[in-house]
Design a protein that fits this description.
This protein is α/β, with parallel strands linked by helices. The protein contains 12 helices and 10 strands.
Length: 384
């Protein structure tokens, strides 16, 4: 009798745990099913030919560094003025399909009182949101290895962002190639799993996840080494996405271009970069992903356009749209021209770079046809 009582007492809680887990899994599947068609439509709208993404999701600290470079104080009003200048640029929606925002901006209003989200919507631009909480040291990894935090409470946060008008999200994982074995298998697995968990979580709240496994340009490795690491990383990410039941048709990929380390010499030929990048994508990205939007990763404004243009001249096996999700490569000249007060000059510079990259995403960009800077924007160990 004593043993029977023990078994009943031991089994009953397990039944309740099982029931709770089944219920949670059922609700998660229902949530994803509810948003599935919307996710597909949003992803396709962002990845439409001839348009790309304006990444304006820098942290308050990083924006402060940018403003300091033009002698402007890092205050909320100045951040609002700068981003308001971007989001009222007439005609920007002809070249930009989506804008990634920092949380402050998503809930912020323009100086005229209208929400920033509404300013974007008037331009035909879909608002997005950076949802990760930044990089943390990876326990058990090499000194330079990190993981991205922010999974706790993400489903609920994503629901709030959706309510505020966001329709897609971004999560940046960072990996680095070093002579002493980085990225380690631990780093690759941890970051891939984090990207997949993020992707599934935000999809359950109606947001299209942009999956960003960035390979930093730091180092003296050659382009073949970058390609090998990048293939392994991206394949591992999509394996994790499959395990987590991520709807790939409702996602976008934001990878680095396949370039050698910043310290490698001689510098890679642009055509070689384009060919290696497309080869890497074809070997690792599922055809069901509607679009690949490359990050500029420290390339100059002009180089980012030239590389993208050459990629789009190469015949591809897969049909994903190949475009851009640039931050510095769209804003560098714009910020300088704005200078804290010159609205017209800032907007003119932004339109020039947006148009250049729109043309590049169709393989129609003519080198030097739009004002640009050849200044390298690489920053070692870049964080934002």
């Amino acid at each position: 009798m004593h043993l029977l009582q023990y078994d009943v007492l031991n089994i009953t809680p397990n039944i309740f745990v099982l029931w709770k887990n089944l219920k949670e899994n059922f609700l998660a599947e229902m949530a994803l099913s509810y948003y599935a068609e919307e996710l597909k439509k949003t992803a396709s709208a962002i990845a439409q030919p001839g348009k790309g993404i304006l990444a304006v999701d820098e942290s308050t600290k990083t924006v402060g560094k940018r403003l300091a470079s033009i002698g402007v104080e890092n205050t909320e009003e100045n951040r609002k003025a700068y981003r308001g200048m971007l989001f009222t640029t007439e005609g920007l929606g002809n070249y930009i399909s989506g804008a990634i925002l920092f949380e402050e901006t998503l809930f912020q209003s323009h100086q005229d009182g209208e929400p920033m989200v509404k300013k974007l919507e008037k331009l035909g631009i879909i608002p997005g949101i950076k949802v990760d909480k930044g990089l943390r040291p990876l326990a058990g990894g090499n000194n330079v290895e990190t993981f991205c935090s922010g999974l706790d409470g993400l489903v609920e946060r994503a629901a709030d962002y959706y309510e505020q008008g966001a329709r897609f999200a971004k999560w940046r994982a960072v990996l680095q190639i070093t002579d002493d074995g980085c990225p380690t298998n631990l780093s690759i697995q941890e970051n891939a799993w984090g990207l997949a968990r993020y992707a599934r979580s935000v999809q359950e709240s109606g947001l299209v996840p942009i999956i960003e496994p960035e390979i930093l340009m730091d180092g003296a490795h050659d382009i073949e080494k970058t390609a090998a690491v990048q293939e392994e990383v991206i394949k591992t990410v999509y394996k994790a996405c499959q395990t987590n039941g991520v709807l790939l048709e409702g996602t976008l990929l934001k990878p680095s271009m396949t370039v050698p380390g910043a310290e490698f010499t001689p510098k890679a030929d642009p055509q070689k970069v384009a060919e290696m990048t497309i080869r890497t994508m074809e070997r690792s990205v599922p055809a069901s992903v509607p679009g690949i939007v490359f990050l500029s990763g420290g390339l100059s404004e002009e180089a980012a356009s030239v590389y993208l243009n050459l990629m789009n001249k190469i015949e591809r096996k897969a049909q994903w749209n190949v475009s851009f999700s640039y931050g510095r490569a769209l804003q560098h000249s714009c910020l300088k021209q704005w200078g804290g007060s010159d609205l017209a000059a800032g907007q003119k510079a932004l339109i020039a770079r947006a148009q250049a990259n729109s043309e590049a995403s169709k393989g129609n960009y003519v080198t030097g046809s739009q004002p640009s800077s050849d200044e390298a924007l690489f920053v070692a160990g870049y964080k934002y």
